[in-house]
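Dear colleague,

Following up on Tuesday's group meeting, I ran the structure prediction for the three-component complex that the binding team flagged. I've pasted the input sequences exactly as they went in, so you can double-check that nothing got truncated or mislabelled along the way. The structure tokens for the whole assembly follow below. Feel free to forward this to whoever is handling the docking comparison.

Inputs:
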Amino acid sequence: MPPRLIAHLDMDAFYASVELLRYPDLAGEPVVIGGGRRHAPEPLPGGGFRYARLRDYAGRGVVTTASYAARAFGVHSAMGMMKAAQLAPQAVLLPTDFERYREFSRRFKAAAAAIAPRIEDRGIDEIYLDLSGLPGTAGDGGRAVAQALKAAVFEATGLRCSIGVAPNKLLAKICSDLDKPDGLTLLAADEIPTRIWPLPARKINGIGPKASERLAGFGIHRIGELAAADPAWLVETFGRSYGAWLHEAAHGRDERPVVTHSEPVSISRETTFERDLHAVRDRATLSALFTELCVKLAGDLQRKGYVARNVAIKLRFDDFRIVSRAVTLPAHTADAAEIRRAAGQCLKRVDLSRRLRLLGVRAAALLPAAEAARRAAALPPRGETLPLFDARAPAGGAESAEEAPLFEASAD
DNA sequence: TCTGGGGTCCTAGGACCC
DNA sequence: TCTGGGGTCCTAGGACCC
């Protein structure tokens, strides 16, 4: 098998950059995106806008994105806004506008797809591209195609991105981060020891805060140190699956394909309250919020064309403990009342003596609504006996049904 | 001034079946 | 009375990612 050529394309400070297109006078300023709608810029009579400042923020939000100027103050994604306000009180605060980001996301992905159609979606601001065998990649390891991608993305959106090109997704992802913003990094397999091994282990996608902390406890800080660790010891220490993967990842080995299509596994809605709520004292408020979440979730399912057979709730208590309860339904649904009923059943199984910080509802075991309708239509009318080999049987069901008597006879 | 909202995947254990 | 082993489905929790 010839080596693959995989690119990872990552938009630079995506939300903040989209906002800077709309408010160009903020270019170069520390800007933080996050929080609710209340701090939208006010148009001034003479033109321009009056912006909210981070120091004026009060609430429980976190930073969604910080402009590079704001990052210089130590502000970063997922940081509590109140903490960010201490670091950069003068930073401009803008509300998130997901509709707009989704539109720019569609645009940059379409522009990239016109050049390299084998694309894997990795959320709103990232994609993997399989450049293997693409015209123009033969001579230069993909540099010209990557430059064309950057130009096309800028043409379509006015935004800059960073690209890593490598033999697999793992390495491409690491590389896209090496030269941000507006970066382009190519890596060949034989450069792993010199360019990848000196990096912190945390740079590997899949080594998070917990794993890197544990590794550090064993004196393993860099990818090269992880690569030098005994694989048997890694398996003993981190489990068969994760331990073996750590070893492979540290050596830059990754055979995962670029997946161009995937179905969602679950769809959910959750909300963090402005203040912690108590099941008894705030019963009416909680009940209304709970119903609202179910209605929104049902709307999401219907809009996206799915039905669900599993409904789960998620609670976060005031001490940040998270609890979840799930129930599997007799039949798929996208109906708000049915989801509300199932979620209510789940809620009854939780001790609600502590105050709640967050409430969420999730739909899982999804089926495309069209497929559910097809199956329903294939069923005989009510009251009629089912044929032995029914359309509802799972794939291969008829075969296993024929073999079933044999298994029964040999069982026990 | 602690710590959002939307996801995926993995593990472990129990129920139930053969 | 104790002893099996495999398989599937399901739940709960946790790590991780954007």
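Residues 34-35, 58, 60-64, 78-80, 82-83, 85-86, 123, 239, 241-242, 264-272, 320, 358, 360, 407-408, 410-412 of chain A lie near DNA strand B (CB under 10 Å from a C1').

Cheers,
M.
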